[in-house]
Design goal:
By secondary structure, the chain is of the alpha+beta class. It has ten helices and 18 strands. Bound molecules: zinc ion.
Amino acid sequence: MSTPSSRDILAQLVAFDTTSRVSNLPLIRYVGDFLSAYGVESRTIPDETGQKANLWATIGPADRSGVILSGHTDTVPVDGQDWASDPFTLDARDGRLYGRGSCDMKGFLACALAAVPGLVARDLARPVHLAFSYDEEVGCVGVVGLLEMLQSENIRPAMCIVGEPTLMQVVTGHKAKRSMRVTVRGRGCHSSLAPQGVNAIDQAARLIVRMQDIAARLAARGGIDRDYDITHSTAHTGIIRGGTALNIVPDICVFDCEFRVLPFEDADALVDELRDYARELEAAMQRIAPEAGIEIDLYAQFPGLDTSPDAPVVTLAKSLTGSNGHSKVAFGTEGGRFDQMLGVPTIICGPGSITQAHKPDEYVEQSQLDACDAFLAQLADWARIGRDWR
Ligand SMILES: [Zn+2]
């Protein structure tokens, strides 16, 4: 059997439309078949609908602690994007491989699979695990089922590498996120009778100004981590909808807002602060209209990641990349969940740049796949020697 290159495998993976809203099972079946062709068993952990699944596989001795290679199988949509080539056909132009998910993050999955024959051929002293998830792009939620399985079976690998695009640089941290949908219900009436109504837009505006006040406070007096481009925690409002006509007092206003919080600060306390203020406003609103109210729905959240620069996983990854620096990134990953739910020291390192992700004409450079292949080949040698990882 000739060994397929990471680029060959990437072409296969890109051809599966795994936009988060659709099933990822055809891709998961492909991966399962690929692995079994090399004698590697895998198991799937389905979601409650049976339409999506995580995949977990172990190469090498399962009774020892090893390293996880983690990545998500889903991608963002191509809706409304203008692509120069078919997003689901890998297209090579000028050293770049174009396709949806090529960078975020099927490129890493392809390199991990391309490494399998080499791992199988070695007599590994420590196992290498593959953890492929779904529904990362909608809040890092799919991987939770996989982590619960590992928790319940007491599988605690020594370290985890999440292959999100970092240009193969070692990344040790990212901020936590809390995404909220705020629904303000007031009482509508003709605007000439405004005092008899409760203007939902006015009350939403107060909450949004409070978000700005919190943002200003975090910037001026909050914690600081100079490894980030934006060194402090942030607050932001992104979408607002309310009102139908100028002569009607609006009875409903809905807005979405978020906190992005340094891992050592309390993200939930910020959400509580907004909730407390909403309760205050609500009391005043209900004196005029008892049916009025404010709902804050925390619809997405993930924990931050802050791995010590001295952790063995950082030292190992630096030795595999051959570069001594590390940094922290603005985007979230599943790494925070591996750290929080399993206590597995985790870093982020993968091919491609996040600036090439999510856009039309998403691409990964062939040289990035080559660098990731080399990284994983060295990891395989290292797992064969099996130095003590604890
Ligand atoms: Zn991603």
